[in-house]
Amino acid sequence: MSQRRERSRAIRLIPTAVVAALLATVAAIVPAEAASPAAGQGTVNQATTDSGTQEQLTSHATSGSDRPAAQPEQKQALASEAQTCTAPNAEGTAVCVQETRPADLPARLAHSSLAAEAVDPPQWCEDANGIILGTRTQICLVTGLTYTTTRTVNGTTTVTGEADMVVINYSYSDTGLPTFAHQIELSMYDGWGDALNASVDGQATLSGACTLDNSSFPAQPLLPLNSWRSGEAFFDTTATAAGAIGTCATFWYLTFTNAGYPAAVTDYQLNEFRCDNATVGRANVGCVVPWYASELVYSSASYPSLASHVQQAQASGLPGATFANPLTRTEDDTIIRTNRNLACGDAPSITGLSCDEYPIARSREGLSSGGTRRTFDGCQMPNVSSGTGPTGVSVCMITATENNAQGGLNTQFFRAERVLDGDPFRVTVS
């Protein structure tokens, strides 16, 4: 992936003179809920009505959104590689398309030449072979695709060609913009026979609280080998009113056409982005991957007593350090107050120190959800015993200035990553 040329992620604007006609075309074609287009329907183009300056759509990678992770429970993992085939036409020809896991994926990606229209996906896309990987602002899925042509004569079916491809689905958003993108690329790395004569085009559509800004995937031949055929689409959220939260799933439908053969359509859906105008302290709308557990980092150099307590608490079995076992944000003031009172309501009064609880009070994993308190040597909590296990909280008297600073660190993190009520997040120490 590193050998592929990067290009600025810019929203391309279409001249306003063609806006009305294009909007009418899209209104007739793209439904509010995604539906498969007719075979060979081709590309949809919708213009933006924004006449302002061109905006840069770039992934704002913060300290909490730079390490990719798989979607929880792997619900998006490549299934049983089911094959979809058309019925033979009057001439007895038919085609099949089948998702696969391409072998030697890094080589497939590196040896293909980048299409000029495409944004270079991140290096970690190489690991997204059959599963969706993501950060707080990016999603990637790489799969294989086999396109097969057949001819049936007198009841006997013969394979007349095959094309093996790698397909990259890549979406990216921005925590400070109401727009996100879904790009699809494919490259044929092997093939023979009639399948080599095929062309592919694409149509983008959507489902949820968003509109199609513009998309482009014109018909392109699969040949030559190891060259990219690409399409990209930009979407705008409709969750822009104060307090609004909305999700949007995006789809690409690829149509393979080949003279003498029926057209074949295959579709790709990528995860939903969530966009909101409900993040406290953010005056703008932004979009994120809601299932991604961003990382709240406490520096042991800057906050040694806070960091030490978090490390001891997590080592005793309390959750929050990993993607597999994150904490869950709560914005319920009653839960937050209950968590704090149950954890530190009887803390001793010691000059220069204050009571710290872990998991943090602004998580659903506090004592409001049950469990008991635990502490450690040197924490100066005389009424609390030691303990282990995944439930309950740890309490410790730490430096008061560090504890006071922790509230600001948490607030900045939730704001920057747009972590809303119910979102997962991690807590780590650097």
Automatic annotation (TrEMBL):
Pfam families: DNase_NucA_NucB (PF14040). Residues 42-65 have a biased composition (Polar residues). Residues 350-428 form the Deoxyribonuclease NucA/NucB domain. Residues 1-34 form the signal peptide. The keyword Signal applies. Residues 35-82 are annotated as: Disordered. Keywords: Signal. InterPro entries: DNase_NucA_NucB (IPR029476). This is Deoxyribonuclease NucA/NucB domain-containing protein. It comes from Streptomyces cylindrosporus.
